[in-house]
Amino acid sequence: QPGEERHEFGAEVGRLLDLVVHALYSEREIFLRELVANAADASDRRRFEALTDSAKALPDGAKVRIHPDKDARLLTISDDGIGMSREELARNLGTIARSGTRAFGQDMAKLENAKPEERPSLIGQFGVGFYAAFMIADRVEVTSRRVGEDKAWRWSSEGQGSYTLAPAERDLPGTDIVLHVKTDADEFLEPYRLETIVRKWADHITWPITIVRDGNDVAANEGTALWRKPKSDITEEQYTEFYQHLGHMFDKPWATLHWRAEGTIEFTALLFVPGMRPFEPVESTRESRVRLHVRRMFITDEAALLPPWLRFVQGVVDTEDLPLNVSREMLQATPVLARIRKAVTNRVISELRSKSKDAETYAPFWENFGAVLKEGIWEDHEHRTEVAGLSRFRSSTEQGLVSLADYVGRMKPGQEAIYYLVGDNHDALAGSPQLEGFQARGIEVLLLSDQVDAFWPERLDRFDDKPIRSVTQGLADLSAIPLTDEPADEAADVEALLPAIKDALGDAIAEARITDRLVGSAVVLAASQSGPDLQMQRLMRRTGQRMPG
Ligand code: ADP
Ligand code: MG
Fold it and tell me: Which residue stretches belong to region A (predicted)?
């Protein structure tokens, strides 16, 4: 070709290409994420330059166009972005000295030291930028015209040591990336396959993305990045639509939280508390699936942006404080995510607190997700008390749901603890003989029937300075509290019976003793004050755990 010059790649490019090309793997589809992201970046940069130079303004209908051509085995990704000059092609695609690749050296070392079978997923996580194209192509041609210049240039390479540069034709500024698709990568010539990838990885790129299917340009992305718009520009319908799209729900969100954090850490969050329980049970995975975006680009939904006990919350967090090609290792180590997590968690808690003030509004939320939220009392040392405050319970004396604060406000003179009874279902609890002594004294008992209820009371020592105690845990000290109804019979002398009971039951019980807890029934099974609660003992037996003592 006239004017064609051959150049060697920089040394690091050679290293990277070698790894990329030889890692045949399942995550190849990320090449499209990389190329579409570059196209969108280039369009953003052109828009930015046009702010001060209107001659560079983007054409109407500017977009990213994906064009698979099965017969020619070509896949072309085109944009109306800023384009590259000859020098920029050589510098940007011939060496690695780029923006988003600060940690490149370390990443490369890690890649090279990894076992071959581990490399694929590592590469997928690192993001390899433009060179990812060589995972599915055995030749890549980039035709580009820099905005403000009249000449276009073609960069071309087989990804092996060198590339060529030659003058080319392009009517308008922008870039075409032409991939000569490898014979084992046919799937990437299928419009439907490409569409799926775009939806998964680039749905929220704000530039329109189209895919040529049957000769037509078909829109492939929603393209709104709704969370980036000011609240005042968003209608309730739009929020609902986005929520439904995001979580595959068809109801309305119970709560919508949309805010922008500015300061030491910058991010935008749009979160939803669902109005119903999702089809996929919230028990199926314990990790939060809130999506992490960096500059609108979807990065992962496995960044655990909220603690497990808030895993029912859905939505997006979008930050500028991370590089686009952030790796999984980096995600685990970076203080940025820890700060975002903290801020987001606190915000959700305060939203729940404010909504909890209206019992009627709060009740459906509690029915849907209360059992999940209570896990926080058990496992989240930092937020335990707050979660306890947000929790609601059934009780032996009240209709509807009560909070611990309500309970404390109703405690009887002389009552020192908050009492609860755990069991498998509410009706059985409500009729339990364990309650008799409490009922006779008008003392409220929380009736707990969720699985997690067997666990959390152990961890929450006190609430509002009142100890929390199971009614089955030894002798609740009820004698200081007067009966509201006098029992019909005088207590008989049952002391003499105790040794006979102990004899009959032997090792099945630790001791037999007289209790204030019963009024109508003769005998009740109690747990010792120091050991696990009765329901806890049952669970431990069921799961084959040994009991202490
Ligand atoms: P990164 O995007 O992290 O900088 P890439 O390997 O994806 O790394 O791209 C390298 C560089 O090539 C980009 O920074 C950009 O300058 C340039 N580039 C890639 N694709 C395009 C494009 N479609 N239009 C303009 N410039 C591009
Ligand atoms: Mg890139």
Answer: 1-328
Query: Binning pLDDT at 50, 70 and 90, where does residue 98 land?
Result: very low
Q: pLDDT at position 528, please? A: 67
Q: What is the CB neighbour count within 10 angstroms for residue 59? A: 10
pLDDT of residue 213: 95
Give the dihedral of Cα atoms 126, 131, 137, 142; nearest 10 deg: 140
C-beta of residue 17 within 8 angstroms of C-beta of residue 52? no
The alpha carbon of 92 and the centre of ligand 1 are apart by a number of angstroms equal to 6
Q: Tally the residues of the chain.
A: 549
Percentage of residues in the chain having pLDDT higher than 90:
52
State the pLDDT at residue 482. 78
Q: Which ligand is nearest to the CA of 176?
A: 1
Between CA 96 and CA 119 the distance in angstroms is 20
Cα gap 521→486, rounded to integer Å: 15
ipTM of the complex: 0.99
Is the alpha carbon torsion for 502, 504, 509, 514 positive or negative? negative
CB 306 within 8 A of CB 313: yes
Q: Is the pLDDT of residue 27 over 60?
A: yes
Dist. CA 256 → ligand 1 center (Å): 36
Give the pLDDT score at 345. 98
Atom of ligand 1 nearest to the CA of 100: 3
**CA 245 – ligand 2 centroid, Å:** 27
Please answer whether residues 271 and 292 qualify as being in contact, where contact means their C-beta atoms are separated by less than 8 angstroms.
no
Element at 148 (helix H, strand E): none
Gap between the Cα atoms of 447 and 421, Å rounded: 5
Please report which ligand is nearest the Cα atom of 103. 1
Contact 437, 518 (CB under 8 A): yes
- Give the chain's end-to-end CA distance (angstroms, integer): 87
Q: What is the pLDDT of residues 317-373, one digit of tens each?
A: 999 898 866 776 778 888 999 999 999 999 999 999 999 999 999 999 999 999 999
| 237 Cα to the center of ligand 1, angstroms | 37
* Residue 445 in tokens: 């008992």
Enter the tokens of residue 427: 């009706």
Selection from 299, 324, 345 nearest residue 130 by Cα: 324
Q: For residues 361 and 355, what is the distance between their CA atoms, to the nearest angstrom?
A: 7
Residues flanking ligand 1, CB < 6 Å? 34, 38-39, 42, 79, 81-84, 92-93, 98-101, 129-130, 175, 325
- What are the percentages of helix, strand and coil residues in the chain, rounded to 5? 40, 20, 40
How confident is the prediction for the chain on average, in pLDDT? 85
**Alpha carbon distances (Å) from 533 to 413, 523, 525:** 26, 18, 11
pLDDT of residue 20: 75
Report which ligand 1 atom has the smallest distance to the Cα of 77: 23
